[in-house]
């Protein structure tokens, strides 16, 4: 593995307790600063891959290195500190509806706080300023004191991106971040993700169901089918037909 | 042109045959239990005159008696507040253990639920009677009774709220490196705090009502005076006790309804 690789996935297999293979001997490396689109049919194993990378679930076989560390060995506090450096964006945004945008964004920082400070709801002045900057980045500063459930889907996803920025992540995993948004809003959210990559130099992996968005935004495209890697090419060298093949191949 | 057909309901569904049968069975069961228990409905009619006499005496409340019952009245409310609070303190961790959606084993929530179910089967008056035998007569016993009763009731109400919680934010926080306590504080509590307070107030309401009768078995509060005045046929004093109880319950209800509406 070269020093510029932030993530290394080696022969990873994930078998769920019910016997279903989520991932089947999959291997690839990711260079620091890459923006990668992961595409594949529903059930191909995209979410499984992401949840394995930040250890939200354990893999059955193989190994995953992040910044050279074998993540399967991490436990307790070490595991939590490791997760701080990996941002995750969800299709369903996962904001706390009853809280303000500000509180939601600040909560992205919680991994850096002691339990006691969290219980009392105390955040440092520096982090409050950071929350303002993060929201400004995604053009949501005007909503600072609004309740999260008063926002539209696109706005919620922007706030979720600002929350992730609070972590100062090295790697961002976005699991179908625009699947429930209209095309125009999707563009906006994708641009915000792209900014994370360009301005903050984060490495970004994003699951997409849209071939157009994948070709437009990604540096590199990875295709998954039945838990296996079936495509891996620079976006500039991929054609829409290549991507259709990821979806349709195997059935024909 | 082809028009789709509206699906037909079967005869049984159309005339609600099942519902009718259930109602008929209930009526038969009701009459049958009257007979078994020796309940004589005619007694109710023939004694209605006696009721009139009682009402007559009660309609002349002896207001001077009020000064005697002020202290027990306050005690009753204190018992209810203290009992509900103590019960709630124990109910919160119990509810977290019993909730199915939180991250722990089936054994844990299964056992917790079983234990909580047992707590809830105890009628509060029976509980009070037993506790009087253990702790003696007085408001301490009443408070413990209400605490146990509240524990059973609140833990169930609370775990049901917990089970409706959206776990998405919790997942997001876990993924960003939060500990379980931080997750509960930041992702779960904001979702449930309003409903928890509302259920606390509701239980308090119920407890104020039931604490007025606990005195009947010696567990402190106003109930004792209710019993005494009735035993001595001082219905004009009984009337004061009942009216005072009524007023207290009403005030608590109004207060708690007001607060609960604020919490929505
Ligand atoms: N917790 C689980 N238990 C058992 N099987 C699971 C679990 N999670 C996912 N699977 C199975 O693993 C396979 C891969 O699922 P995964 O969610 O990773 O797919 P995906 O590519 O993210 O699909 P989608 O586009 O629908 O989100 C599927 O067959 C799915 O049914
Ligand atoms: Mg998925």
Task: Describe the structure in your own words.
- The complex is a heterodimer of chains A (about 250) and B (about 260).
- In chain A, strand 4 (about 60-65) and strand 5 (about 70) form a beta hairpin.
- The longest helix of chain A has 17 residues, at about 185-200.
- Chain A contains nine helices and ten strands.
- With about 250 residues, chain A is of the alpha/beta class.
- Chain A starts with a strand and ends with a helix.
- Chain A is globular.
- In chain A, helix 6 runs parallel beside helix 7.
- Helix content of chain A is about 35%, strand content about 25%.
- Chain B has about 260 residues and is mainly α.
- In chain B, about 80% of the residues lie in helices and about 0% in strands.
- Chain B is built from twelve helices and no strands.
- Chain B is extended, with a radius of gyration of 25 Å.
- The chains are: A alpha/beta (about 250), B mainly alpha (about 260).
- The interface of A and B includes residues 54, 108 and 121 of A.
- The complex binds adenosine-5'-triphosphate (ATP) and magnesium ion.
- Adenosine-5'-triphosphate binds near residues 18, 42 and 46 of chain A.
> Helices and strands of chain A, in N-to-C order?
EEEHEEHEHHHHEHEHEEH
State the share of residues found in helices of chain A, binned by percent: 25-40%
Task: Report the count of strand segments of chain B.
Answer: 0
Query: Can you tell me the residue ranges of chain B where pLDDT is under 50 for at least 5 consecutive residues?
Result: none
Share of β-strand residues of chain B: under 5%
Structural class of the helices, strands and pairings of chain B?
mainly alpha
Class by SSE composition of chain A:
alpha/beta
Number of helices of chain A: 9
**Main sheet summary of chain B:** none
CATH topology of the largest domain in chain B: MetI-like fold
Describe the biggest sheet of chain A? 6 strands, mixed
End-to-end C-alpha gap of chain B: 52 Å
End-to-end CA span of chain A: 36 Å
CATH architecture of chain A: 3-Layer(aba) Sandwich
Domain ABC transporter (chain A): 7-251
GO molecular function (chain A): ABC-type phosphonate transporter activity; ATP binding; ATP hydrolysis activity
Protein name (chain A): Phosphonate ABC transporter ATP-binding protein
InterPro entries (chain A): AAA+_ATPase (IPR003593), ABC_transporter-like_ATP-bd (IPR003439), ABC_transporter-like_CS (IPR017871), ABC_transpr_PhnC (IPR012693), MetN_ABC_transporter-like (IPR050086), P-loop_NTPase (IPR027417)
